[in-house]
């Protein structure tokens, strides 16, 4: 059963750019169980999910490790062929017309680069220019704009292998956008980035969506990415779509909490935080307060700053997996164990009857 919210309903009233209906992906995984013995295990990575994404929407697509997020993205791009169901992106079947679709989509996999490792960054862009047959004037205009917005001018002559993770990620995003794609798939685009790099990438994505109306589907484990970029979020768990709606609704369904970490000048009894928050831990002058994730931290911070000798504070966001676990398992039962990684097509074979 899918928990839905108003965000999904609003998106459905617009032009559907991505249409997914009963999408499935099944792998047969062979695993060694002894000398000359192998066990064949069927893994249903994506299990009959359905959704639509309107043109120009920014949607968060989240879930625990091994939930089926990357497998879905690979089917949306045509890298994998669905085992069942119907899938269309801009009216195109990705697995049947992958080359045609490639000119209309951009993809960034946070842990895998599309750049040429030993070449200067600018050479990768020149290769993209030829591969996508981008008109010269359009290529120069897009390159100049992306270099400026992503602060890449000092990096163009640097080999990709010498770039930091944050620099390479900005370079990958620019490469994915050189040909003006209508939809951008981002798989963990801020993984491993520092605070400054994350802020720069998020600001750029906001501008891209506002100015050009680019549709964005974002998978991430960072709730701040979702909060700052997406008005709608979809949750997948064990291959099934279990929530589709606003982020606030997800917090309510999972009863998630944020944590305010307060450093006082000296050790004191637990602070009086009012009915909206509670002290969950005290360690010397440091105290941890939990409060609802849907609530702003500002009133709580203002109250503590006015009544206590405050030195420093920070707000910690709830972990996505914890939010989803509380939503799916409210009574506290233990969920089935996960592999922590979705099956890779190189190590599995399609189930019988699937292409």
UniProtKB/TrEMBL annotation:
It comes from the Bacteria. Pfam families: ABC_tran. Its main location: membrane. It is a peripheral membrane protein. Residues 331-355 are annotated as: Disordered. This is ABC transporter ATP-binding protein. Residues 24-263 form the ABC transporter domain. GO terms for molecular function: ATP binding. It is found in: Cell membrane. InterPro entries: AAA+_ATPase (IPR003593), ABC_transporter-like_ATP-bd (IPR003439), ABC_transporter_ATP-binding (IPR050763), P-loop_NTPase (IPR027417). Gene3D superfamilies: P-loop containing nucleotide triphosphate hydrolases. PROSITE patterns: ABC_TRANSPORTER_2. It comes from Streptomyces asoensis. The keyword ATP-binding applies. Keywords: Antibiotic resistance, ATP-binding, Nucleotide-binding, Transport.
């Amino acid at each position: 059963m899918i928990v839905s919210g108003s965000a999904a309903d609003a998106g459905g009233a617009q032009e559907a750019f991505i249409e997914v209906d009963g999408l499935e992906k099944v792998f047969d995984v062979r695993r060694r169980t002894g000398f000359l013995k192998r066990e064949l295990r069927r893994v249903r990575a994506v299990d009959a999910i359905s959704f639509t994404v309107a043109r120009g929407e920014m949607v968060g697509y989240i879930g625990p490790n091994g939930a089926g997020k990357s497998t879905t993205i690979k089917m949306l791009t045509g890298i994998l062929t669905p085992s069942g169901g119907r899938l269309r992106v801009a009216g195109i079947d990705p697995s049947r017309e992958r080359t045609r679709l490639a000119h209309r989509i951009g993809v960034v996999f946070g842990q895998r680069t599309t750049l040429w490792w030993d070449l200067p960054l600018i050479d990768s862009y020149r290769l993209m220019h030829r591969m996508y047959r981008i008109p010269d004037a359009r290529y120069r205009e897009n390159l100049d704009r992306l270099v400026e917005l992503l602060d890449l001018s000092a990096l163009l002559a640097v080999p990709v292998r010498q770039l930091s993770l944050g620099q390479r990620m900005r370079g990958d995003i620019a490469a994915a956008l050189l040909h003006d794609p209508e939809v951008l798939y981002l798989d963990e685009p801020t993984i491993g980035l520092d605070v400054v790099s994350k802020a720069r990438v998020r600001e750029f994505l906001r501008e891209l969506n506002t100015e050009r109306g680019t549709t964005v589907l974002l998978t991430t484990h960072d709730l701040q990415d979702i909060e700052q970029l997406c008005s709608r979020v979809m949750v997948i768990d064990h291959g099934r779509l279990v929530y589709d709606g606003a982020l606030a609704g997800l917090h309510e369904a999972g009863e998630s909490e944020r944590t305010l970490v307060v450093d006082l000048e000296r050790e004191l009894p637990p602070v009086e935080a009012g009915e909206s928050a509670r002290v969950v831990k005290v360690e010397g002058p440091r105290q941890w307060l939990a409060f609802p994730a849907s609530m702003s931290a500002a009133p709580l911070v203002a109250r503590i700053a006015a009544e206590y000798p405050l030195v420093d504070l920070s707000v910690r966001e709830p972990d996505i997996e914890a939010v989803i676990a509380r939503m799916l398992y409210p009574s506290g039962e233990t969920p089935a164990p996960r592999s922590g990684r979705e099956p890779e097509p190189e190590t599995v074979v399609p189930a019988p009857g699937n292409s």
